[in-house]
Structures are given as C-alpha cells and as structure tokens.
Amino acid sequence: MKVEYNNLYTHFVFTTLHREPLILEKSRERIEKYITGIVNNNECHLYAIYANPEHVHFLISRSPAISDQQIANIIAASSERFIRENKLVPGNFRWQQSCSAFSVSKGEVDRVCKYILNQPEHHRKRTFAEEYEAFIKYYQKRIKPLTD
Q1: Model confidence at 143: pLDDT above 50
Q2: What is the pLDDT at residue 123?
Q3: CB-count burial class (<10 Å; 0-12, 13-18, 19+) for 108
C-alpha cells in the first residue's frame, strides 16, 4: 500500500571509532554540508546537524521508502569515504559499527533542533558519555528532560 502522508522523524547520533575526537572545528561545517547533501539526495530532509569532535547529531524526516537502517548505512559509508578522501581528519577515519536512532514526534522537532544546534554550549557542561547516558534514559524511559 502506498503511504501518502508520513511523519517519520529520527534523531541520529553517529560516533567516531573508539569515540576519538577526530572531527576538527575547521572541518566541521564541510562534514555537516556533505551529510546534508546525502540526506537530501535520498528522499529525506535534514532539520538540524552538529558535528562534535567525537560524535555527530542530526535530525531528519524520511520517506517510508527508506528505513532508518538504510539511510544510516548510506550516510555512514558515503561520509566516511568523503572524510578520508578529502583528508578532513587525521588518519583513516571510520564511524563506530553502530549508531543510535531515536524517533521524534512532530511536536518535538523544534526542541530537538534547538538541542542539536546548541551542542557547543551543551558540551561545556556535560561529556559525550554523560549526554549519551541521559539520552538512553530519556528516550527509553522518559525520566528526565532532554535539556540541562
């Protein structure tokens, strides 16, 4: 059956291999733009993205024709290749073998976008490990709000 209308929003978190802080500020914007292009070229829409040194957050909406797993694989493979070929980080860049994908309701899109775009300020207060633990609690149990 054809789906004519959908609200499929996903907040992805990709992590560098071994959580090494490889993404430099001077390369951040170029990596973000490349990932945005991949998303747009695959029947998806990117709402917010921020590349931290050891992880990247991005929020997309996607067509039901492509799964979260498929778009994650496409983004990971293509962006790894782009980062390596353009020598945007030292060494042989790779993402972790898995990522996180959290579903987001339409009513939460603005709040999640603000959260993603506020990453520099957020990480002055909390490490990535602390942030990730809070994400798991928030998305799995809805215990604590996403913001500080």
Answers
A1: no
A2: 72
A3: middle
